[in-house]
Automatic annotation (TrEMBL):
<dbReference type="InterPro" id="IPR011701">
    <property type="entry name" value="MFS"/>
</dbReference>
<feature type="transmembrane region" description="Helical">
    <location>
        <begin position="166"/>
        <end position="189"/>
    </location>
</feature>
<protein>
    <submittedName>
        <fullName>MFS transporter</fullName>
    </submittedName>
</protein>
<feature type="transmembrane region" description="Helical">
    <location>
        <begin position="335"/>
        <end position="358"/>
    </location>
</feature>
<feature type="transmembrane region" description="Helical">
    <location>
        <begin position="305"/>
        <end position="323"/>
    </location>
</feature>
<dbReference type="InterPro" id="IPR036259">
    <property type="entry name" value="MFS_trans_sf"/>
</dbReference>
<feature type="transmembrane region" description="Helical">
    <location>
        <begin position="102"/>
        <end position="125"/>
    </location>
</feature>
<keyword id="KW-0472">Membrane</keyword>
<dbReference type="Pfam" id="PF07690">
    <property type="entry name" value="MFS_1"/>
</dbReference>
<dbReference type="GO" id="GO:0022857">
    <property type="term" value="F:transmembrane transporter activity"/>
</dbReference>
<feature type="transmembrane region" description="Helical">
    <location>
        <begin position="78"/>
        <end position="96"/>
    </location>
</feature>
<keyword id="KW-0812">Transmembrane</keyword>
<feature type="transmembrane region" description="Helical">
    <location>
        <begin position="247"/>
        <end position="267"/>
    </location>
</feature>
<feature type="transmembrane region" description="Helical">
    <location>
        <begin position="210"/>
        <end position="235"/>
    </location>
</feature>
<feature type="transmembrane region" description="Helical">
    <location>
        <begin position="364"/>
        <end position="385"/>
    </location>
</feature>
<feature type="transmembrane region" description="Helical">
    <location>
        <begin position="279"/>
        <end position="299"/>
    </location>
</feature>
<feature type="transmembrane region" description="Helical">
    <location>
        <begin position="21"/>
        <end position="42"/>
    </location>
</feature>
Amino acid sequence: MGIYRDLSRNPGVFRVLFSQLMARFPFGMLSIIVLLHIQLTFGDFTSAGLVLATQSVGQAVSGPLSSRLMGRWGMRRVLSVTSVLCAALLVTIGLTRLPLPVVVLLALLVGLSTPPVTPAVRTLYPKLVPGRQLSALFSLDASAQEIIWVLGPVVAVFVSSQFGTAAGLCVAAAFLLGGGAWFIMSPALGEVQLPPSRRGLGAVLRYPTVVISTVIGFFFVASFAAIEAAIVAAFSVDDGHGGGHGSMESGIVLAIFAGGSLVGGLIIGHRAMRPWSPLLRISLVLAGTAACLVSLNMWWLSVVLFIGGLGTAPVFAAISNIVSSTVRFSETAEAYGWIGTGQLVGVASGSALAGIAIDAGGAPGAILVSAALLAVAAVVAAATMRWIPDLRGRSIEPPADTGTLSLPLP
């Protein structure tokens, strides 16, 4: 654990780590809050799936574009505008009762205005610590990200069950504004200049590692959205009007899942990655998820999801290591933009598929969806092993930007 202690000797690292965690935290809450809010408002999970799917379209468009805009207009300006706009839209959805088509339009705008915090912070990391510490920092970031995607729904369920889903959306907006301001005012954000990309939009997808990371991230995160919806449905409490809300049992199970991921990230995530590492880590998560089909007993679910969670943060750490070691610095922001888009779309898509599965077959249907998505992620990791770098004894700093220099003839 000494490697994590060494990180604290780099000024500003932990402020950036924790502030970006708070800024991104609402997006771990939103899939569940929106699912519950729209289901209670319109009476079915399919409408909620439509809203989440529309939000994912906006996020798919905004991820790479906003990442490139940071190179042109600056990180602080882009992050400030998108944070304020996105928070205002969330409050509007929560506090007004609007027709479904209008809510769908607002959800699209929420996706389009999603702040590009992930590309910004992962572009900063190689400039904050020496190369030998970068793997440990990515491991901590992966653990923090898992808290976002797994612990976020715990907060969402608690606030929604105690104070209502409208309050949940307002809490998410508050995290977005507070965490965003904290991150935006970090001195490191003003010291690191993000260079504009030299190539056209999408050119970074010519790197096989970016495509592999994006696809794996999509299916991997989609599986979490599905299992989270399944756990909420398994312990849902009928409100007497044909709807329901999450109970504290679901919050406990998801918190234990997050605990497993945190432990796994700290003890596994910083280890040197090999080509087969992503497959092994995904398989561990798949085993825990599939075991949920044995019983919906709270304690059984807690045990098997804790075991599955041990592989979760290490997978995210592996994705960051793959990109950082193979993509030039001027293109890392856009690369992480595409990967972040894949993960955010995965959240919405997994929730949408789970909502339909819950309507058709209850919580076990959503668990099957989650396991199937993880199986696809494992197949992709196995089929693309030849392109995944072996990082034993290697630096994972981004390759230097190079270009052609024309010299006059003598």
